[in-house]
Design goal:
Elements: H1 16-30, E1 37-38, H2 50-63, H3 79-90, E2 102-105, H4 108-114, E3 125-129, H5 134-141, E4 148-149, E5 154-155, E6 158-162, E7 180-184, H6 196-209, E8 212-216, E9 242-247, H7 249-252, E10 260-263, E11 269-270, E12 273-274, H8 275-286, H9 292-300, H10 304-330, E13 335-337, E14 343-347, H11 354-365, E15 367-368, E16 370-371, E17 382-386, H12 391-403
Parallel strand pairs: 1-15, 3-6, 3-7, 7-8, 8-9
Antiparallel strand pairs: 2-10, 4-5, 9-10, 11-12, 13-14, 14-17, 16-17
Helix pairs in contact: 2-9, 3-9, 4-5, 10-12
The structure holds pyridoxal-5'-phosphate.
């Protein structure tokens, strides 16, 4: 008799964005004339940069000629891409990460979700609360989290690290020492960042206690302030305790094209086993490489003109972030984020829950955002707006919210 993986049944409700999609669909059917503005899902709206398009065209032409055709890509990524990542993202920032420590993939979501496979089932995990739901959900599927408690909104075996206004939305060390620590900065959904001093404390903590930090830096390109680390490897000792995830999705609008990478340093071992070796084995067995044309497009992001073009896109979104944050503050909301990240985190008015505010904003302003409670128990009474819309729709949405 076939058995299903019953851990899946422990996942509470449907995935956050499916629930939002369903609510918006139902509202649109009931109100066909409503012009709904979506500042909810974190997908980008700007087209790919010209340098990326040129690289894609060039690579497609190469694939059409026998002498330059490429079949399977190397498991870990083409050298031309891994070298430029090593040089520009790491060595240029003083981080000694070699091309061979970089694993190219089709995005950070898969890597963040899959990385737990190389760790034993008995490990405890800690997550920022609130945070991107993939870390907890992928550990639930793997049977690492115990049962879900609907009342607290928590899984029994997960250590939640509260990120609140009191600690500037960057977590303190927990009393119980976790084995795996997921940190995400700039943070989705709060838009908060962590200072280098505070991140260094986490690195020291992980090295002292034998924990591994899984550091998601998908929004690194949005950091605008000095003193905020772009990579965990800017901290001393991180190569013996941290894995880092990066994505081209928000940096260069690759949400549909798909490209990302993970850094697993050679110095990182657990129980005498190299995590680099385990991840290489996993990658080689279950993944056949990101497409050549997409890796060429990724390399174009690092060219002088590509870099300039994607920085312009990031600046465009960050101007939206300013429009949203200023608009909210003027309208009397408590709002943070939006300076080093494309997310603005606002406190819901009065005692409204996150979902009540979602319904209120949808029905009264026809604006869609994301309820904070979908990101963890400490997200309750908060709400996320994203800066990835067009300028016109962002201004229009803020005008509607102001009129409320
Ligand atoms: N990590 C975080 C924190 C995210 O918010 C997202 C996307 O929203 C991802 C990873 C996924 O990135 P990718 O598109 O590369 O899979």
């Amino acid at each position: 008799m076939v058995k299903v993986n019953k851990n899946y049944l422990k996942l509470p409700g449907s995935y956050l964005f499916s629930t939002i999609g369903k609510k918006v669909r139902e509202y649109s059917q009931a109100h066909p004339d409503a012009h709904i503005i979506r500042l909810g899902i974190g997908d980008v709206t700007q087209p790919l940069a010209p340098a990326v398009i040129t690289a894609l065209h060039g690579a497609v032409d190469e694939m059409g000629k026998a002498e330059s055709f490429r079949g399977y890509a190397p498991d870990l990524g083409y050298d031309f891409l891994r070298k430029v990542i090593s040089d520009k993202d790491y060595k240029a920032r003083g981080c000694d990460i070699s091309p061979d420590e970089i694993f190219v993939s089709d995005g950070a979501k898969c890597d963040c979700g899959n990385i737990q496979e190389i760790f034993g089932a008995e490990n405890t995990i800690a997550v920022c609360d609130p945070v991107y739901p993939v870390y907890v959900d992928s550990n639930v599927m793997a049977g690492r989290t115990g049962e879900y408690d609907a009342e607290s909104g928590k899984f029994h075996n997960v250590i939640y690290l509260p990120c609140t206004a009191e600690n500037d939305f960057a977590p303190e060390m927990p009393e119980e020492v976790p084995d795996l620590i997921y940190l995400c900065f700039p943070n989705n959904p709060t838009g908060a960042v962590i200072t280098k001093d505070r991140l260094q404390k986490w690195v020291d903590y992980a090295n002292d206690h034998g924990s591994v930090i899984l550091y998601d830096a998908a929004y690194e390109a949005y950091i605008s302030e000095e003193g905020i680390p772009h990579s965990i490897y800017e901290c001393e000792g991180a190569k013996t305790c941290a894995i880092e995830f990066r994505s081209f999705s928000k940096t260069a609008g690759f949400t549909g094209l798909r490209l990302g990478f993970t850094v697993v340093p050679f110095d990182l071992s657990v129980e005498g086993v190299s995590l680099h070796t385990l991840w290489a084995r996993r990658h080689g067995t279950k993944y056949n490489g990101a497409p050549y044309i997409v890796q060429r497009a990724g390399a174009a992001v690092y060219s002088a003109e590509g870099r300039q073009q994607v920085l312009k896109q990031v600046a465009y979104y960050m101007e939206n972030a300013t429009v949203i944050k200023d608009g909210l503050l003027k309208a009397g909301y408590e709002a943070s984020g939006g300076v080093n990240a494309p997310y603005i985190w606002l406190r819901t008015p009065g005692s409204m829950t996150s979902w009540e505010f979602f319904d209120y904003l949808l029905s009264e302003a026809n604006v869609v955002g994301t309820p904070g409670s979908g990101f963890g128990p400490h997200g309750e009474h908060y709400f996320r707006l994203t800066a990835f819309g067009t300028r016109e729709s962002t201004i229009e949405a803020m005008e509607r919210i102001r009129k409320l």
